[in-house]
Structure formats: structure tokens, C-alpha cells
Amino acid sequence: MIYGVLLAAGQSRRMGSPKPLLIWQGQPLVRHVATVALASRLAGLTVVLGAEATSVGLALGEMRSRVHVVECAAFATGQAASLICGLASLPTDAIAAVILLVDQPFVTPGLINQLMTTFAAHPEAHAIVPRYQGQQGNPVLLAAALFPTVATLEGDTGARVLLRNPTTHVHWLEVADPAVCVDLDTPESYQAFC
């Protein structure tokens, strides 16, 4: 059972306004990414809220009944808290989680499925990480064996620091789609990709 964890709790400092609420293809970005995730073979999706939790929760619209929503009280301490909160909320049968970022609108259900298929072929891996032309991308699949280590993270860091640890068995998934390296961090990037 592989679940998705959509991180939508950040304060969007560089964007200057909440990224989950940006309009993408006629709907809030958080709803768009959740729709993509639910179109994949994931067993379920947890959406982690924090900053602007009420507004972002409402932006999920009808999707809210199809996802598990959790609020991260410590979201202001950085991404680590949101990631830990999301993983801790997963069902006990979770063997892995695909970590989705709310500011990556070009991720497809096919890419999510490819991460899951690759994990099935490499069950010894702690993480399946997409890579485009040598550049590490997202989303990343984390095996449940890595969850306790993730729980020790602090501050504004995601799992990337763990992926650099030589004891972490990372399987690199080479992809032809640059979408894994595209995120909307600034007003300029948002306008450019719109």
C-alpha cells in the first residue's frame, strides 16, 4: 500500500501569497495537484495544511471528501514538520509514500505510477528519486523503513538531506520529462509558466 502525502503547509515567503491558492488551469493549485495524485494508483492521499489552513482546506472543494486532511501545528518551523506530520498520519499498512509538493503542477499520474512500479521492482530501496539530465527532482517515493529517520528531521529541510546519507539506499529513476525539476517558487516563475 503506497500512499501520497501532499505538502501544502508552507508560508510561501518567496511567492508572497499562498501557493496552494494560486489558480492553475482554472482551479486552486492544491486542488489541481490533489486531482493528479488521485488519478494515479496511490492507495490514498493525505494533504498537510498549515499556513492559511482554513482557506487552503476550502480550496480543495469537493476533493476534501476524497482525501485525508491533517493540520501541522508546527508548520512555521519548516518543511520537516509538515513531512513528519504527513507520514505520521498514514495508515499502518503503508509500505511507502510518494511526497508531493503543492508547487509542482506539471507532475502527472503517470510519473507517480512510474515511481511506484520502480519501487515494486526495487523493494530494497529506501527511496525512489526521479532525475532529469542529472538533476534531482520531485516527487520522491520514501519507503516505510525510512519513516523513523525522517521523524528526526528538524527545520526547513525535507528528505533531501537523508538522500545524501551514504546509508540511504537511493534508486535513481531517470526520466525524460523536465517536469520533475519545475516548481513555482516566485511570482516570476508562476507568471512564466502560466
Structural notes for this entry:
- This protein has 194 residues and is α/β, with parallel strands linked by helices.
- It has seven helices and ten strands.
- Helix content is 28%, strand content 22%.
- The strands form two sheets. Strands 1, 4, 5, 6, 7, 8, 9 and 10 form an eight-stranded mixed sheet that branches. A two-stranded antiparallel ribbon has the order 2-3.
- The radius of gyration is 15 Å and the shape is globular.
- It starts with a strand and ends with a helix.
Q: How many DSSP E strands? A: 10
CATH 4th-level superfamily: Spore Coat Polysaccharide Biosynthesis Protein SpsA, Chain A
Which class of secondary structure composition applies to the elements?
Answer: alpha/beta
Second rung of CATH, namely the architecture = Alpha-Beta Complex
Question: Which class in CATH terms?
Answer: Alpha Beta
Low-confidence stretches: none
- What fold name stands as the CATH topology? Spore Coat Polysaccharide Biosynthesis Protein SpsA, Chain A
The string of secondary-structure elements, in order, is: EEEHEHEHEHEEEHHEH
- Tally the structural domains: 1
Q: What's the main sheet like?
A: 8 strands, mixed
Q: Give me the Rg, rounded.
A: 15 Å
Count of separate DSSP helical elements: 7
Beta-strand content: 15-25%
Mean pLDDT: 90
